[in-house]
Amino acid sequence: MTYNQLAFALEILKLLADKPRYRSELGDILSEYLEKQGIEAKDVLQKLTRTIPKLRKCGFIIESAPHHPYVLKESNFPLILSVEQRQALYIAAYFLANMGFSAQASQIYRLGNLSQSDRPPNVKVDFNPPVDYSESHIDTLVQQLQQRIETGCYYQIRYINAQKEERKWDLGLSELRLHNGVLYLFAHVPGAPFKNFEKEPNIEQNYTFRIDRITNIYPSSGSAWFWRTFPTLSIRYRMTGSLVYYQPRRNHEKVIERNLDDKYIEIETIEDHLFWFRQRILQYGKNVQVLTPNWLAKNIAQEISLAYQNYNNLVQQ
Asked: Which residues belong to any copy of the WCX domain (predicted)?
């Protein structure tokens, strides 16, 4: 069987699309590939060396350097897409761009060779991210955080809060979360103070850190996280009025009771961040009531009472 240059080139692209690979590793894998095709695998490294420049001429951006792996930075593989597929890709890129991920959106635009003509009519978004997460220093922070999270070991960050106060934080279990259009580092802080629980870990020790306010990320400590799941809290609440037909969309929520005659529904939810839960509950106004735990219900009642005082004069007029 003769050596097929096109199939050989496609196999190289397939391997590099999977991950960066050193020349020797590519040579070993490509030798096995050729042998399976019934082709003698002699001079495979020379074939590799000749093929890479040809791929670059076709528009594939492949980085290489002495003692470094080959890295496929950008593919130029032609895609044949239907109108529906092009519109779906455009919406995905449009959403990403407006959520602050312009570089990632640009990748999709280039991948599908998309233009304004592919934009579906009457589609708008209303995200207001604090920064463009594709900015070089933000992108570097995100990559560093991903590396720390991947190691599964304790690490430190330096962070400036909303009051412009800067301090170091010792963090355990962590993950990146996009919430209401803002990218956060969500992390458990071992040893953080708490007041509504008897022991740790507990939900009050779960903190959020806006990515754009992190000023430094320190090396991993090498000590593995002791807790591998975020502490949570079971909360029960009741919805009334027009919300009696509410259908839970979150996988950690379930309906306990729905009474259409008395027009209420009771829901149990498992939450890992109290502030985000309060934000969601308060937006429902008079049509929601937290039932348990009692201390959380009291906290929210106090918050509503303070908010009422801001409008008390208007109510009495």
From this structure: 248-304
